[in-house]
Design brief:
Blueprint lengths: L7 E5 L1 E4 L6 E2 L1 H14 L4 H8 L4 H8 L5 H17 L5 E2 L3 H7 L5 E4 L4 H10 L7 E3 L12 H10 L6 E5 L2 H9 L3 E5 L10 E3 L5 E6 L3 E6 L1
Parallel strand pairs: 2-5, 2-7, 5-6, 7-8, 8-9
Antiparallel strand pairs: 1-11, 3-4, 10-11
Helix pairs in contact: 1-2, 3-4, 4-6
Length: 222
């Protein structure tokens, strides 16, 4: 599915925003760290990169090393998170992210990310982006995307019915999570177009936010 060329208008009562690949371009550090991990475990780096976007690290490890004990994946994930938090070289905003977040001030929205608090804070700061007041991070959920738990928690914290939420996501796992939560999905960036979001954009410069009387949000896309 190509990035939306025809202007599209969507309405919602709240927006739920992924971070990596959606607001923040962290591909450089993700590639560095996960390819090193793949090499350590004798795995093909290209195949590993097909799995890791959108998921918590331990969930990716469980798919890539299915016979490894959960405890080992969790310990390895903790080390990886510390490594990723310390490495912000090349972390930048997705084009349009700063203006997009600024346009959401005073409107219901939440960050829903597979990163933990430390990593999400480090990457948003590195990209020069403000952190939304409502945040659902790895510590907040018991299941990683593509499970819908994170998005459902975000909707609950905002007090909005899932059907009235729109998700912004870049990865297959995240788009699947949004759909499973009963939400519409705007796909952001080149990865998203392969996973059939409701609409797709090249980046956030293609999205304009309009506040609607009564608390609604109107998105002009394209």
């Amino acid at each position: 599915m190509p990035a939306t060329a025809t202007p599209t208008v969507l309405t919602a009562r709240a927006l739920l925003l992924d971070m990596d690949g959606t607001l923040v371009n962290s591909d450089a550090v993700v590639e560095r760290i996960w390819r090193r991990w793949a090499e350590r475990h004798g795995l093909d780096g290209d195949e590993v990169m097909k799995v890791v976007h959108g998921r918590q690290g331990h969930a990716s490890m469980a798919l890539l090393l299915p016979d490894r004990p959960v405890e080992q994946n969790l310990a390895d994930n903790a080390r990886m998170l510390a490594e990723e938090t310390a490495d912000t070289d090349g972390v930048i905003e997705i084009p349009g992210a700063r203006a997009f977040l600024s346009s959401l001030e005073g409107l219901p929205h939440a960050l829903v990310t597979s990163a933990d608090v430390a990593l999400s804070t480090a990457r948003m700061n590195a990209a020069g982006l403000p952190l939304p007041a409502v945040r659902v991070t790895a510590e907040s959920v018991g299941a990683s995307k593509p499970d819908p738990e994170g998005f459902l928690k975000g909707a609950a914290e905002l007090g909005v019915d899932p059907a009235d939420c729109i998700v912004f996501e870049d990865s297959g796992a995240g788009i699947a999570a949004g759909r499973s939560a009963g939400m519409r999905v705007v796909g952001v960036g080149p990865r998203a177009v392969f996973h059939e979001p409701d609409v797709a954009v090249r980046d956030l410069t293609q999205v304009r936010v309009e506040a609607v009387a009564g608390g609604g949000i109107r998105l002009h896309i394209g």
